[in-house]
Amino acid sequence: MKHILRYGVLAFLSIGIVATAAHASAAGRSGDQVERTAVSYADLNLDSAAGRATLQQRIDRAAASVCGPQSTRLAGSVGRAVKGQECFEKARARAMSVIDKRLEEL
User: Fold this and answer.
1) Segments making up each domain of the chain, as ranges
2) What's the pTM?
3) Residue 53: predicted pLDDT
4) Which residue of 16, 32, 69, 82 has the fewest CB atoms within a 10 Å radius of its CB?
């Protein structure tokens, strides 16, 4: 349990940093003006398909929250929607990369 919690905290911090960097890039802002978010998976069993699916949902929600609207209707313009989509995809891919590395270390 202690081992899982330690990795949960590491991923929690890493995912927050990654989403922030992706948002800064998509929004064209400097790093000190971006939102931060975090995802914890300390309570999940990542050996199960259900645990991994729950983690993916959490990552998706966090990335969407940080990156903003991904539809033209919600974003108000095509350009903002595209930036939101790009940010979401980058944040999600990077977060999953961090998680995959942590799982390999277990």
Assistant:
1) 2-105
2) 0.65
3) 93
4) 32
